Amino acid sequence: MTAIHTLSRERAPRPRPWSRRARSSSLTTAARAVPPLSPRLQMIRAVLVLLLVLSFSLLIQLSVISSLQASAAQGRAFDKFRGQLATGTAPIGPNDADDHEVAIGTPIAYLEIPSIGLKQVVGQGTTSSALFNGPGHRRDTPLPGQIGTSVILGRRAAFGGAFSDLGELKKGDAIKVTTGQGEFNFTVTGRRGEGDPAPAAPGPDASRLMLVTATGLPFLPDGVLRVDAELDGAAVVGPAPRVTVNQLPKSERIMGSDPSTLWALALWLQALIGLSVGAVWGWHRWGRAQAWVVFLPPLLLVGLMTTSELTRLLPNLL
Questions:
Q1: N or C of the chain: less Cβ packing under 10 Å?
Q2: CA terminus-to-terminus distance, the chain
């Protein structure tokens, strides 16, 4: 009897702590042990999600997407400007061939600086959004090669950083600019930063080119760099600018920002806030993994659209 009792005790099924029923019971107990989030904590979590998405989206926008956007825009602008040169319809002033004002962003010149390997199509206008696509010509100045001082602004780091190497230019370096009036060769006469004295005004029949960008660490500008260059040869006559320096909008000045689409930024922010609140609700209702699977793609998409509008408010030389 003792042997039979011992055998039956050995064959008795042992409890399995990791069985499905045990795991389900454990999870249910744990879920009941976690108190629901208070409205304040839910708000804090939604704000943290919002800040995380905005920060990550802005980083991706400035470091990756903006460069791809600028590269694609330069390709389109080069094809358009080359076609205009071939047909003789490239702008040579503030008005186009049909006597309409040249729209901001329209290609007006092709800039080449061999010493730093720069080849960029220059567009009309210097708003923050205009400089998404490459360097821009300030509308209150003549075109390169025309009598007077032509000013071209370019970004230091974002959207391809067209003028990132401008500080490496030295006196005597060559600059070539092609416009609807022909090819013009300039020679660099010097660089100057904030507070440095400006060179004497050009002569009544001379042409000067000024290239402008930001100084400091990438994405953290702390000043302005100007490179001056004088035209080799005779300048040409061109139409007078439509705006004067006093009429030039603040958004087109050095370190200006473009608030013209604040309404779009407000709409995208509302959508992002709604998705953040929905993500917190889903996190609490369904679980962490399910909430991220459902809400992460739309959060990233809306976050990128929001930061795209936000970059218009950043300095145009960033």
A1: N
A2: 91
Q: Please report how the helices 39-60 and 262-285 are oriented relative to each other, as an axis angle in degrees rounded to 10.
A: 130
- Cα distances from 303 to residues 81, 169, 270, 280, 289, in angstroms, run 34, 38, 11, 16, 20
Q: Which of 199, 216, 217 is nearest to 208 (CA)?
A: 199
Q: What is the pLDDT of residues 80-122, one digit of tens each?
A: 999 999 999 999 999 988 888 999 999 999 999 999 999 999 9
Rounded CA-CA distance 225/168 in Å is: 11
CB atoms within 10 A of CB 142: 25
DSSP character string of 163-184: TTTGGG--TT-EEEEEETTEEE
Q: In which residue are the tokens 């993994």 written?
A: 289
Q: What confidence tens digit (pLDDT) does each residue in 259-295 have?
A: 888 899 999 989 988 888 888 788 778 887 888 888 8
Per-residue pLDDT reduced to its tens digit, 138-180: 999 999 999 999 999 999 999 999 999 999 999 999 999 999 9
DSSP 227-258: EEEEESS--B--PPPSS-TTTS-GGGSTT---
Residues counted in the chain: 318
Give the domain ranges of the chain: 84-252
Residue with tokens 């500008």: 221
CB 156 within 8 A of CB 215: yes
**Residue 55 — pLDDT band, cuts 50, 70, 90?**
confident
Alpha helices in the chain (DSSP H): 2-11, 20-33, 39-60, 66-87, 262-285, 288-310
3-state helix, strand, coil in the chain (%, to 5): 40, 20, 35
Alpha carbon distance 277, 13 (integer Å): 49
Q: Which two tokens stand for residue 213?
A: 């960008």
- The hierarchical CATH code for the domain 84-252 is 2.40.260.10
